[in-house]
């Protein structure tokens, strides 16, 4: 049995003074066959604890079932950490941020207008209760009081950066306790007074989140909580990347000095991130710096969540690993033995495109069943959470050239007239239009909307995807829509034809094949391509784009098969003929991470 508690001076573990040196490592961003390897590397760093979120929307399947098997087996992850001698901190939400799609909230909560997310709105509390009813029974056998390694559970996440609904926070606390969570409960908020005031819960330990100037940050925490342990529950040692911006890095020596300054105060720490991992599939989130959903400032996160962490995306031990390990060793004992070797990697090679292509607009019947609506509807109202969505209608003619406008794009719309690409409209260019003339026979209008990540931070969590309001030709609202959700979870029905073309701006699926003797990690590059999605043996690795900064996608060893492997690319814009397997990542040109100042 493990009991983590605290007194006026600090943490106590089973009655003895204790300092938490934790590292964040998210099981949902790491292939489950690599959990053991990554946790071993975390322990080698000197950590005595691992911290992970539990994203509600990752465990809730499209069917509505809550799943804790396979990649979602939180118990397996926790027990693996236990075998490495690590305590575990869990953060089950309901909101997690984490640069994760919708901050972990299920997209279906946006199907109807009006639900007060992250508030004491009874409709939202009922949904949260359903999540707690599902997740807490999975956690109870893992708690320290029942012989497991879980020593603490977080209530919400940085709530003071969002709101100050004390009744909501009390409901979460009471819900965890009533369901049997009897370990240390805590909150984590930014290092400003108003954030701590909005997120703290009376009687629970308050902790801070920041990336630099620890003594100054802890002064804020002490103003709100005069006694008890000081803890940085997120000490940001890197940063995440956004599409179109440089890759964020933080100098290893400067990071180590900041960590040393923090630990010298006697405080505990959770390194965010110790190992970042990957936003596989459609799981990358987004930020929005604008004042409303139809203002510019939407900033989607890239597929890689490398985070410039000490343990790299493919498990490599970086310069930062060695610098931080040296600092940690000044304050807690380091484990004995040799450091883990770098995982093996595939030999570089170039793959030429296999014969045949499949145009997306020709493949709609193989990918989806249409629904018919008088007006456009967002994805959430059609029961779709992730992917792309296609809208089709007929515009009668003749009509002179007039502007075509989409009201409420989430997030990027490719527009076609009788199958011919006519342009792109983007939510970051609100009010944009495309010229559309219509001949006497009318025109079939197709709109393919690419949904990037839902906002995971800030006030705009109601980030609906697809077309939220409607489509206008000049002032006339267009009606009579055939709509096809395209979650792209199964591509097996696609037909690749040798006579299928690949014009610029025309979304097309391409295939590649390669033989592998012994599966190992690899990095996939698409030089000359535009933007799209890449699958390996049916698994969606994530998004790529010429906008960068990321230039390679991580393809972990467990996804490769001995023998023949198939890769499928859905290129939305600009087609090429080859892709490359590389043995080193390329995350693009760099810039200084904001965490050095926050």
Tell me about the largest β-sheet. 8 strands, parallel, barrel
Low-confidence stretches: none
Q: How would you describe the oligomerization state of the chains in this entry?
A: single chain
**How many whole angstroms does the radius of gyration measure?**
25 Å
User: How many helical elements?
Assistant: 10
Core attributes:
alpha/beta; 598 residues; six-stranded antiparallel sheet; eight-stranded parallel β-barrel; single chain; 10 helices
Report on the architecture of this protein:
Residues 12-330 form the Glycoside hydrolase 35 catalytic domain. It catalyses: Hydrolysis of terminal non-reducing beta-D-galactose residues in beta-D-galactosides. This is Beta-galactosidase. Keywords: Glycosidase, Hydrolase. It comes from Kitasatospora purpeofusca. The protein is an alpha/beta fold and 598 residues long. The protein has ten helices and 34 strands. The strands form eight sheets. Strands 4-5-6-7-8-9-10-12 form an eight-stranded parallel β-barrel, surrounded by five helices. The chain has a six-stranded antiparallel sheet with strand order 17-26-18-23-20-21, with no helix packed on it. A hairpin with a 2-residue loop joins strand 20 and strand 21. Helix 4 packs parallel to helix 5 (166-178) and helix 8 packs parallel to helix 9. It is globular, with a radius of gyration of 25 Å. The relative contact order is 0.13.
């Amino acid at each position: 049995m493990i009991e983590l508690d605290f007194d006026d001076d600090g943490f106590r573990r089973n009655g003895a003074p204790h300092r938490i040196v934790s590292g964040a490592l998210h099981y949902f961003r790491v292939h489950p066959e690599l959990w053991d390897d990554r946790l071993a590397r975390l322990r080698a760093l000197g950590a005595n604890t691992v911290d992970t979120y539990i994203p509600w929307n990752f465990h809730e399947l499209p069917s509505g079932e809550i799943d804790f098997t396979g990649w979602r087996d939180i118990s397996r992850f926790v027990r693996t950490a236990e075998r490495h001698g690590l305590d575990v901190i869990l953060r089950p939400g309901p909101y997690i941020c984490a640069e994760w799609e919708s901050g972990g909230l299920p997209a279906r909560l946006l199907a109807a207008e009006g639900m007060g997310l992250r508030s004491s709105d009874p409709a939202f509390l009922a949904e949260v209760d359903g999540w707690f009813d599902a997740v807490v029974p999975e956690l109870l056998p893992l708690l320290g009081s029942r012989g497991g390694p879980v020593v603490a559970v977080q209530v919400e996440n940085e709530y003071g950066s969002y709101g100050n609904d004390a009744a909501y926070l009390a409901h979460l606390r009471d819900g965890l306790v009533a369901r049997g969570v009897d370990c240390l409960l805590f909150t984590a908020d930014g290092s400003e007074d108003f954030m701590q005031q909005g997120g703290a819960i009376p009687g629970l330990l308050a902790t801070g989140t920041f990336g630099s100037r620890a003594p100054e940050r802890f002064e804020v925490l002490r103003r709100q909580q005069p006694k008890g342990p000081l803890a940085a529950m997120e000490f940001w040692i890197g940063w995440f990347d956004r599409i179109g911006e440089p890759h964020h890095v933080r100098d290893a020596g400067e990071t180590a000095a900041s960590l040393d300054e923090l630990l010298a105060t006697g405080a505990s720490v959770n390194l965010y991130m110790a190992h970042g991992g990957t936003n596989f599939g459609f799981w990358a989130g987004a930020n929005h710096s604008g004042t409303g959903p139809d203002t510019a400032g939407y900033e989607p996160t890239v597929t890689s969540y490398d985070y410039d962490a000490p343990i790299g995306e493919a498990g490599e031990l970086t310069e930062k690993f060695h610098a931080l390990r040296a600092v940690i060793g000044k304050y807690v004992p380091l484990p004995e033995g040799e450091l883990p070797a770098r995982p093996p990697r595939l030999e570089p090679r170039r793959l030429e495109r296999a014969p045949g292509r499949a145009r997306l607009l020709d493949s709609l019947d193989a990918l989806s069943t249409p629904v018919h609506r008088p007006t456009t509807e967002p994805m959430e109202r059609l029961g779709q959470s992730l992917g792309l969505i296609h809208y089709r209608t007929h515009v009668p003619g003749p009509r002179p050239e007039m502007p075509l406008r989409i009201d409420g794009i989430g997030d990027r719309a490719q527009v076609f007239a009788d199958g011919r690409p006519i342009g792109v409209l983007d939510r970051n260019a609100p009010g944009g239009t495309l010229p559309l003339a219509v001949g006497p026979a009318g025109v079939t209008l197709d709109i393919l909307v690419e949904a990037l990540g839902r906002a995971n931070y800030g006030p705009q969590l109601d980030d609906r995807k697809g077309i939220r309001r409607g489509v206008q030709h000049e002032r006339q609202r267009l009606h009579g829509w055939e709509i096809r959700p395209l979650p792209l979870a199964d591509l097996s029905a696609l037909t690749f034809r040798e006579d299928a073309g690949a014009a610029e701006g025309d979304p097309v699926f391409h295939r590649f094949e390669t033989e592998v003797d012994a599966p190992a990690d690899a990095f996939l590059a698409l030089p000359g391509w535009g933007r799209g999605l890449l699958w390996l043996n049916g698994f969606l690795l994530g998004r790529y784009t010429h906008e960068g900064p990321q230039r390679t996608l991580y393809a972990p060893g467990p996804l490769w098969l001995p023998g023949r492997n198939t890769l499928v690319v859905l290129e939305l814009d600009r087609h090429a003929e080859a892709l490359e397997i590389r043995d080193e990542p390329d995350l693009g040109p760099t810039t200084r991470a904001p965490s050095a100042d926050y």
